[in-house]
Amino acid sequence: MNAITNSPGTAALPASLSDAALARESEIAKAAIRRRSNMIIGLRLLVLVVGLGGWELAARYKVIDPFFYSMPSMIWAQIVEWVQEGTSQGPLWQQVLVTLEETVIGFLIGSIAGVICGILLGRNKLLSDVFSLYIQIANSIPRVVLGSVFVIALGLGMASKVALAVVMVFFVVFGNAFQGVREADKYMIANAQILGASPRQLTMAVVIPSAMSWILASLHVSFGFALVGAVVGEFLGAKEGIGLLIATAQGAFNASGVFAAMIVLAVVALAADFLLSRVEKRLLKWRPAAF
User: What is the pLDDT of residue 291?
Assistant: First the structure.
């Protein structure tokens, strides 16, 4: 048959015409998505150009004081100087690697500890009731203040920066893991229990996969917190790292150096966020795409 009739009251439609119409609609939709993507990229570039251009003009015409606020051209010159000649603490890449190493170690330790504690307390009501008060008290303490304690106790080396990064990450990941476990599908848990699943099997096969979206969502934020912890620790006292670079620039009243170090940090954070996004997409292939 060359026609498909949906119901007695509807007209017949050739199958070839229907397929062609669907193909055209698909192409139109793809073209619209491409146009919107290009428009977003263009608008982002426009905002960047207007912002940097306005900053540069305001500094050149003394609307703002370039001594305190610098200007994009001076910041770029500072970055080029660091790349070509190195910083006062050594090569720029070495400062980046030191800070990145502290950040990654603190991120991994804090994330693993947060996930384990979140799952344990989320699955055990007694542990949750006992430790919830102490966790609230610890969470209420400003973590940045602990940096001074860690520097005194652990010295100016990497340990104090890693410790601060761990503390910054732990509570973010713990809170999401705990809430994710508590929000696990009760009907699925009940069905698994009816089928004879042990508590360990229930946790590994049902609860953790259910909480995975919560856990992975916290990793984007927590890596930034780990980076903040490492930099703040270096700012308080360190032998090398981007935080020390910022502290040195501040001590010399070098606003260009402070902004240049901030840009380096932003690049590191964006690269890490991109990698985490790729990992999340691989681990959550089953999740429907967002509209």
Answer: 46
- How many whole angstroms from its chain centre is CA 231? 16
C-alpha distances in angstroms, 231 versus 126, 135, 139, 225? Answer: 37, 25, 20, 10
Q: How far apart are CA 166 and CA 178, in angstroms?
A: 17
Q: pTM of the prediction?
A: 0.78
Q: Which residues pair with 87 in a beta bridge?
A: 90
> In the chain, count of helices (H) and strands (E)?
12, 2
Query: 54, 62 in Cβ contact below 8 A?
Result: no
Q: Which residues pair with 90 in a beta bridge?
A: 87
- The predicted-structure confidence for 261-270, as pLDDT tens digits, reads as follows 999 998 988 8
pLDDT in tens, 123-174: 888 888 888 888 888 888 887 788 888 888 888 888 999 999 999 999 899 9
Residues in the chain: 291
**DSSP at 286:** T
Return the H-helix or E-strand segment holding 13: strand 13-14
Contacts of 254-260 with CB under 8 Å at 24 or more apart are 254/78, 255/66, 255/67, 255/68, 255/69, 255/70, 256/70, 256/74, 256/75, 256/77, 256/78, 257/78, 258/70, 259/70, 259/75, 259/78, 260/75, 260/78, 260/79, 260/82
Q: Alpha-carbon Rg of the chain, whole angstroms? A: 27
Parallel/antiparallel/unpaired status of strands 3-4 and 13-14: antiparallel
Q: How far apart are the first and last CA of the chain?
A: 38
d(CA 4, CA 244): 73
